[in-house]
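Morning F.,

Quick status update on the modeling queue. The single chain you submitted on Monday has been processed. Sequence for confirmation:
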Amino acid sequence: PPEDKPYVAMMHVIQNAFPGHATSFLDMRTAQENLTSSRQAWWLAQSMWHLDPFGANRDKCLRALHPLVHHHVFTGKLSLHVGPSRERSILQGMEKDTQEMQEANWCYLVDEAASVGDVYHHVWEHGDLVIWDNSQLLHRSN
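Structure tokens below.
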């Protein structure tokens, strides 16, 4: 999302093709707050390349560099920002590492955030509507 705007996202179940399917939402704001001060400083000093999701060649697709910590446009609170996915996010300085190493690093950072952040698990039912600020929450299917 743009750094200066919240990014509202929503999911609405019209027909539940996968009963019992869940989505986890990780609060990246509380994750940042709950890190130790030394880890907060490390995250604050880092940036990550976000790769164009439509680039066919991973090594040659467009990249945008984003800080791993950003300020929310309305609240001013800090939040972690790891990027869209392990396949499309590379920590600055790891550009020449193997894709396997880059993806493992992304997973490590998400796991670190999940170990200290608040997580909400939503089990989907017919008619559910969930709305969230995508600049503050990381979501994934379970």
